[in-house]
Design goal:
Elements: E1 3-9, H1 13-24, E2 32-38, H2 45-52, E3 57-60, H3 66-75, E4 82-86, E5 90-92, H4 96-106, E6 110-119, E7 134-137, E8 142-144, E9 147-148, E10 151-152, E11 163-164, E12 172-176, H5 177-182, H6 195-205, E13 209-220, H7 231-248, H8 251-274, H9 278-294, E14 312-313, H10 317-323
Parallel strand pairs: 1-2, 1-4, 2-3, 6-13, 7-14
Antiparallel strand pairs: 4-12, 5-13, 6-12, 7-8, 9-10, 11-13
Amino acid sequence: MDVAIVILNWNGRALLERFVPVLLNNIPKDNCFVVVADNASTDDSLPWLQANYPSVEVIALEENYGFAGGYNRALKMIEADYYILLNSDVEVSPGWIETLTAFMEDNPDVGICQPKILSLARRDYFEYAGAAGGYIDRFGYPFCRGRILSNIEKDRGQYDEPEQCFWASGACLMVRSDLYHYLGGLDEMFFAHMEEIDFCWRAKLAGHQVWAVPEAVVYHVGGGSLDAASPRKLYLNYRNSLLMLQKNLPTHERRRVMIKRGFMDFCASLAYLFTGRWSYFKAVWKAKRDFRKMAPDVEVSSFSDDGNDIGLYYGSIIWRYLRSFGYLTFDKLRL
């Protein structure tokens, strides 16, 4: 049983220098190996890596294919029973990989899992991207155990039990290799952001479970490639969320949900406009425009509409959050 830990790198020399040594000190040597897939970096990432850690395998891609395309091309070249997609800005902890591997080995119905993801800057708080397992509302807005929109909870052990969820974070995602290839990998139409949610949704529709395993812990910097306040990131999140709904919603629900989601996006764009965030306003409308252009080429999921809906909140997380004046926590939310 081999585990390939694959880090996608783009001009991340400083991150590799900081986190690769910690990673190599916290993996079993008998069945785990590390691969850095490089998205055509222009810094000295690869020369530095080869000079200092020649045991780390390198896959040098000829151009920047984004998160989805980079991983798809790299994983086609890697043979292992399990893949771990690991961000370059993640610090692992002792026993993390043994815990995840044991969980997957003991639970054959689980296709994907993630550890507890805490903030590297505030190590007793959850990290935005994944926290203790990802969820989604009926309109495509994601949230997590430990993070609902901008409200990030302190880790008090409240989510320390393994739990089936809707999506696992691309910051640290473990997947069976045969499932990854069966699903066709990540959707390259997304380029970056939300492709792991789409991937997990497709896995669930195909009959596989997604779990969070909090006994395994990692620490994430976050925002390594795009700042959280970036209009580009906002654009990708809005556009890709719409693509994801178009692909995976049951046929009988798609039109009704998309109409309501369109109204919600319109309201959000007005809020950005009236608060002087012109770049955000433009990002939302550009996302909607580009979604309409891309929609005819979206490949709707061929799997059953009767997939596993655990982790799907049938209400609106936005509405619940506003009703709570921004203080909504996961344990107060009834799924």
